[in-house]
Specification:
With 236 residues, the chain is an alpha+beta fold. It has 5 helices and 4 strands, in the order ααβαβαββα.
Length: 236
């Protein structure tokens, strides 16, 4: 049987062209949707990475600041120790370097010195009833003559000690060790305050002490204290 197509060829071609164009539009839409999704995903990841990078940079800056503060503290302590060791050769009746070495030798674990002030003062004179006996007059005359010949022997040496420690237990241990020292007397705690640097908590303390009177050290004792003090001081 003969099939006769009554649809014009132009209409058929136009229909096929429309279907082809529609297919291209659908494919283009799919591709653009995929590209848009990829773009959005990349932007979200970039923002997340930027936020994480900003957080890490802030943490690194905090860590760097803490390191710089710690290094400044260590540099200050080392300068203080070096200056004290090279200051006056003698501090009557005990050399200054020997005194500093003794303070360093008695440091418990975790305790560091920050500052040391040494002051010499004249002893306080209390009012007393004047003795009329010749013996008392002779003793007073002898003491007066000694003071005129060697006034530095009458000076009393006081110390202000500042440092840091992990807890008050180490501060108490340091006070106990200094109190048992043969060089120091009247060791007392002035204050102990809590300080915090980042997540680290420590105690900053201040002590006062007095050099014992009538101290006599042999050359062997002095050299031993100095050697041990230098080794301890520069090993921090």
């Amino acid at each position: 049987m003969l099939n006769i197509n009554f649809v014009p060829d132009d209409y058929v071609k136009c229909s096929e062209s429309r279907r082809t164009n529609l297919m291209y539009l659908v494919l283009f839409a799919v591709v653009m949707t995929g590209l848009a999704g990829s773009f959005v995903t990349i932007k979200v990841r970039q923002r997340a990475i930027a936020a994480k990078e900003k957080f890490l940079s802030a943490k690194a800056a905090q860590a760097q600041e803490a390191i710089e503060q710690f290094e400044a503290l260590q540099a200050r302590r080392k300068v203080m120790l070096k200056t004290a060791l090279t200051t006056a050769e003698l501090l009557e009746p005990v050399p200054r370097s020997v005194l500093l070495a003794s303070l360093t030798n008695n440091l418990p674990a975790g305790v560091s010195l920050l500052q040391l002030n040494v002051i010499q003062k004249e002893p306080r004179i209390t009012n007393q009833v004047v003795a009329t006996s010749k013996y008392r007059e002779a003793q007073d005359k002898k003491a007066e003559d000694q003071a005129k010949e060697s006034p530095e022997k009458l000076l009393e040496t006081y110390m202000d000690i500042e440092g840091v420690a992990p807890t008050d237990l180490q501060v108490a241990a340091y006070i106990k060790q200094l109190s048992s020292s043969t060089l120091l007397d009247n060791v007392a705690l002035v204050e102990s305050k809590e300080h915090k640097m980042d997540d680290t908590t420590f105690r900053q303390f201040k002590l006062t002490a007095m050099l014992r009177k009538n101290i006599h050290l042999s050359s062997e004792d002095i050299e031993g204290i100095r050697a041990k003090g230098k080794t301890t001081a520069w090993s921090f």
